[in-house]
Amino acid sequence: QVQLVESGGGLVQAGASLRLSCAASGRTSSIYSMGWFRQAPGKERELVAALRWSGSTIYNADSVKGRFTISRDNAKNTVYLQMNSLKPEDTAVYYCGAGGRYNSYDYWGQGTQVTVSS
After folding, report:
1. Per-residue pLDDT tens over the stretch 41-59
2. ∠ CA 94-89-117, rounded to 5°
3. Which of 57, 67, 94, 107 stands 20 to 30 A from 82 (CA)?
4. What is the pLDDT of residues 104-115, one digit of tens each?
C-alpha cells in the first residue's frame, strides 16, 4: 500500500502562485508514476501533470503548460505542483495520484482545494 498526503491549497487572487505538495509513504518502491489531477464542480477529474517516480515529466495538460511545473524531491518522497499565474478556471479540488504502471493510478490523496478569485 501507498499513502499520499497533500497540502498547500488555498484561496488566492488571479495571477498569484501556489505550491502543492504530496508526500508518499509505504511501498513507494512500487510506484511507477505520480500525477496531479483536478476536479472542478460539475466536471470530470482531469490529469494536470504527471512524472515518473524516477523524476522525468511525462505529461503536462495544454491548459497549464508554461504555468504549472511538476517536480519531485527524492529525499522526502514528495511530489510538488508549482502553480504560477493562476486563473479563476484553475479553481478545483486537486488530487495526487500514484500508480505502479504508466497512466494507471491506484492510490489517491484526500484532495486539497484551490480557489482562484478574479
Report:
1. 999 999 999 999 887 888 9
2. 95
3. 107
4. 899 999 999 999
| Short-list 111, 8, 108, 96, CA closest to 51 | 96
Rounded to whole angstroms, how far apart are CA atoms 47 and 59?
A: 8
Q: What angle do CA 96, 97, 101 make, to 5 degrees?
A: 155
The number of beta carbons lying within 10 Å of the beta carbon of residue 81 is 25
Provide mean pLDDT across the span 33-47: 95
| 90: three-class secondary structure by DSSP | helix
CB 73 within 8 A of CB 53: no
Phi, psi of 27 (to 5 degrees): -80, 65
Contact (CB, 8 A) for 116 and 91: yes
**Contact between residue 34 and residue 50 where contact means Cβ atoms under 8 Å apart:** yes
